[in-house]
Q: What sequence folds into this?
């Protein structure tokens, strides 16, 4: 079977829901070029040699230690991967930048500090700054000479970012904006040189400002004592008539929300990358422990219960990675297309990120929850030792928890996922209505009981097509029944989002497996096929449960019975021995003594 002759198409954001993708067009981690592989290895080596040996010192917030690590990363070019060469960066593509986040993602508090610096600490100025602002700040941020931070959250405005109370008022001489207010949970806040701070000019125009350490009227609080990521500097910032030169207004007055939300799109995808990078290391740690820990005169890796845990770790990581780099390539391709059409660099990057904001939100949820799962099961595999600070898995467990909170809580990202799809449909950017009506019409027809196809992957393709119909069935019925009330039915919206996340990841895993099989042959891809088929088999039940919960929340009587029957039809998959598949997956991890990819 060959996929190379299939016509290539570039899907826009959320179009995967109503259009089929081909394996030929999808980008997979096995497509990394030689340079990208080298970057990945460089990042892993940096964490191994510079970070892991001094984790205790990092966690104690040893003065100057984290800033020195950021400088070392800068010396290796790891801070300026996506910064254009004219500003001292490497000017690499979006996939390479994503790889850096994954590669450094296993560095515990260091990964948080470096992600904040390269992301929310640098990108607002790079994408929204004036030429003078970029020339002044970006080269020093790209090398790590100056460290970056970001001040958005306040004590009473977390998810409701636009509810911020910090104000900015033009001084009498017109030379400064005077900032007054407070910011909290500021990563890198204790040592950063440059802060992007959000405040409302005259109390209503939400705007962004570049604030330098040392500006008059700017102070910081003590380091917060946190459950995890203890080595990450987290402080409050205080502004009391803080004098910010008018030339340090970032972007347009009153347009700060554009900066905040666009930067979050990119940050969500890269948080997924870092999460999966951390998950790979936690999985390897767990495999190594299971291979050496003996109970009842045998390694615990020989027990079926442990094999099940190890396999589930690998499956979730591999499937999530498939969706991550599929999306990263879409963003990269969109950037290139927008630049070719005449868009400036910053407009192209932001336009591409906005186009795939839905996928970025889903990836943030999936990646953070996959890491949480792997860390939690890792502790369980370690047993009592997993609860001891002497074992690194306990640190992974504590550090993982924050990922479901920042960059928008996972609840907010689930709600955003559905909200953005519906708004795009209303604006005509994506046609959801006609496919949803087609599914409703199909529901009234006699099911197709035709002979099963003997084509390789026919069953998996049918399953994915059914999952998409299930989403359209539930979402379409919810919109029709609840209309404007739907936006207040958060439980239903989150159920639909869960269906979408499972489907997107399952399809990405399937496409990766198909492409690999085309390249290597079926026998050489047994490991990947077991993971893909297990994920789809399990996803069917998860999607069915989420769909039932949603339908039961608003439908009743004959309508309810009809919708539930349709949902059952669209989420039905063939029987599959997932136990044996997981044992085969676990055997690969156990034999290689690590997560193997």
A:
């Amino acid at each position: 079977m060959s996929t190379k002759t299939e016509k290539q198409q570039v899907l826009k954001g959320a179009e995967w829901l109503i259009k089929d993708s081909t394996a030929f067009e999808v980008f997979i981690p096995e497509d990394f070029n030689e340079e990208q592989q080298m970057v990945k290895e460089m990042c892993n080596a940096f964490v191994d040699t510079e970070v892991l040996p001094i984790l205790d010192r990092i966690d104690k917030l040893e003065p100057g230690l984290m800033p020195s690590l950021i400088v070392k990363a800068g010396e290796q070019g790891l801070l300026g991967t996506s910064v254009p060469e004219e500003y001292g960066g490497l000017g690499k593509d979006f996939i390479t930048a994503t790889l850096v986040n994954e590669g450094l993602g296993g560095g515990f508090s260091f990964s948080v500090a470096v992600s904040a610096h390269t992301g929310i600490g640098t990108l607002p100025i790079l994408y929204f700054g004036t030429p003078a602002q970029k020339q002044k700040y970006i080269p020093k941020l790209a090398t790590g000479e100056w460290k970056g931070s970001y001040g958005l959250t306040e004590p009473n405005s977390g998810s409701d970012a636009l509810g911020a109370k910090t104000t900015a008022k033009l001084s009498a001489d017109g030379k400064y904006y005077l900032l007054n207010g407070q910011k909290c949970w500021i990563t890198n806040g204790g040592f950063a040189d440059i802060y992007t701070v959000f405040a409302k000019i005259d109390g209503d125009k939400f705007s962004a400002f570049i604030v330098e350490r040392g500006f008059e009227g700017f102070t910081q609080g003590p380091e917060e004592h946190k459950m995890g990521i203890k080595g990450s500097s987290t402080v409050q910032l205080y502004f009391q008539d803080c004098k910010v030169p008018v030339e340090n207004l970032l972007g347009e007055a009153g347009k700060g929300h554009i900066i905040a939300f666009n930067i979050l799109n990119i940050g969500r995808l890269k948080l997924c990358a870092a999460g999966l990078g951390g998950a790979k290391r936690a999985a390897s740690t767990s495999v190594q422990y299971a291979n050496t820990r003996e109970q009842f005169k045998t390694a615990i890796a020989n027990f079926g219960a442990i094999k099940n845990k190890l396999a589930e770790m690998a499956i979730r990581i591999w499937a999530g990675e498939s969706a991550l780099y599929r999306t990263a390539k879409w963003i990269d391709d969109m950037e290139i297309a927008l630049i070719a059409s005449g868009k400036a660099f910053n407009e192209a990057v932001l336009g591409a990120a906005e186009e795939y904001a839905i996928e970025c939100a889903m990836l943030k949820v999936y990646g953070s929850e996959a890491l949480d799962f792997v860390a939690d099961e890792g502790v369980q595999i370690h047993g009592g030792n997993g609860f001891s600070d002497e074992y690194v898995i306990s640190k992974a467990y504590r550090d993982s928890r924050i990922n479901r909170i920042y960059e928008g809580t996972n609840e907010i990202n689930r709600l955003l996922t559905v909200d953005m799809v519906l708004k795009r449909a209303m604006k005509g950017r994506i046609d959801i209505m006609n496919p949803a009506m087609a599914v409703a019409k199909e529901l009234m027809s006699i099911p197709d009981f035709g002979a099963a196809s003997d084509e390789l992957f026919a069953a998996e393709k049918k399953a994915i097509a059914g999952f998409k119909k299930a989403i359209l069935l539930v979402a379409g019925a919810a919109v029709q029944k609840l209309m404007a009330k739907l936006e207040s039915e958060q439980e239903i919206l989150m159920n639909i989002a869960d269906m979408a996340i499972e489907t997107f990841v399952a399809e990405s895993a399937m496409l990766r497996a198909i492409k690999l099989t085309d390249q290597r042959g079926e026998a050489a891809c047994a490991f990947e096929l077991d993971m893909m088929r297990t994920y789809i088999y399990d996803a069917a039940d998860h999607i069915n449960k989420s769909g039932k919960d949603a339908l039961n929340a608003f439908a009743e009587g004959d309508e309810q019975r009809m919708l539930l029957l349709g949902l059952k039809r669209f989420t039905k998959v063939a029987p599959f021995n997932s136990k044996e598949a997981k044992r085969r997956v676990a055997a690969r991890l156990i034999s290689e003594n690590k997560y193997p990819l």
Residues 256-292 form the longest helix (37 residues). Residues 513 and 529 are 6 Å apart (CA to CA). Confidence is low (pLDDT under 50) at residues 1-7.
